[in-house]
Amino acid sequence: MKKTVYISFLFTLLATSFFAQTPTLVQDLYAGNADGFDQWNHKAVKMGNDFFIAANNGTQGLEPYVIKNGSLLLLNDIAAGSESSNPKEFVVFNDKVYFVSVNSEYGASIWSTDGTTAGTSLAIDLPGNDMFVSPKGLTVAKNGALYFSFDGSLYKSAGSTATTAVVPGTPTVDFVEDYASTGLNYTTYGNGVAFLSENGQTLSLWAAEDNIVQLGTITSTSFFYDYFGLSQVAGGLVFAARSSFDTAFTGLYNYDPVNGSLAKISVNGVSDAVITRTMPLNDQRIIVLEAIAGFVSVDGTGTNDQLISSNQPNFLVQNEGLYYTLVGGHLVFLESEPGFDQRILSTDGFSNGTTLIAQPNNTFVSNFINYNEYAVWASGTSNGFTPEIWYAHPASGTAEVYYTFQQNSTNLESVLPIGVQDGKLYYMSNLDSEVGRELYYIPFNLSAVSEPSDASTFTIYNAGREVHIMSTASSEPITVAVYDQTGRLLQQQDLFTNTSFQIEQAVGIFFVQVTGKRQKTVGKVFID
Known about the structure:
Helix content: under 10%
Shape: globular
Number of strands: 43
CATH architecture of the largest domain: 8 Propeller
Number of domains: 2
CATH class of the largest domain: Mainly Beta
Number of helices: 1
Strand content: over 45%
């Protein structure tokens, strides 16, 4: 059954006063109905108060831009003229933003910017000047160095061409690009990095700082296999491997630095676990999506797994990722249910620290971004739904609709949040077909939003089979249990206050127990 979340009266008043403002178009960068922004290259990085992102003005191709003081500014026409330099892999390093760009003079190389046109220039000129061999996986390690793969080798750099060199002992390595979704094949480890590389049927795990050390190998009976999700956790390093032709090879692997062993470990009791996606949480745990169990938090020991959700996402396209963000020690992610229902969960990596915080009425959820103590996303971004901007406060387990758009989504990814700057939420959108996908903002002031009150009370009543759970405060997650007159539990589900549901039994007197974060209430309903 589709659950409907109603916004509280107080929040509705706020929404119709402070929040009911028309979005502001920053600039029709690519004049007319063409797109100034690329939905497949929309990730921005923030340095100081500025956001760095790729954009296209129609005459100079896709180039690096900065969102500064409410304006959108071109940093450098790296690929001169109408050609695109396709900037990507933005990362903050040495008080600058480093990124990969391509032009005919230097090929695919690494550039840097301080946020000004004069301060945007070539940083690392890589050998070969090949436009089709690109550096990947720009990673800043604890030792203060920048690591990346290029043309089959691992490089280490202090930020300039002169300080960039191949790490001695490098095997053939190719980092996946940072938009990869199932999980990465590299990670920070110790003071440097760790990574996976394949050679025929052998998959090897390596660690690198000034030199490279092989940590272990595993072998498949097949040449066709995948590997991803390499992460540092409490038990060492973990990664997933799978092959449709080799069940014994498929599973979650752990490298234990104490005894120097690399071995497969069980996941929630499943020995040959089929891992389909991973989400890094912190240096202690990673969340894996296992084909049988669901979402499991693991620490690499194989003995302290935490099942945080038994649901499986629907309609995942090959290599399509899970939407998530990290906020104050919590992972906020799109869990999804059977059918078209979509659920947003927050977890600290433990079962008792996992909360259902939102269940948008509109499906097709966007990417997630974080802002201070909040996670922000859009729902209803495709297939004719009405988009909404949502925010969640993981520490309190609450979420609300912040803004509802007036237009329906006629194209895919109609709203993609970028970030918050000076009290404005910036996002790219193609809701206006005459303008194309461009940059907008709406005022964003979460201090004006009321949090659920400790004095809130639940009201339980029914109209026919529909049972309504109302609250005097904003919508908050609850657990609803229905008992018969003998005290036998008939049904239980996670919902929200200001929500209705149906009792599945035929007729009679039933007791409804509502458990929230702040109180527990029991009410009696009669179904005739």
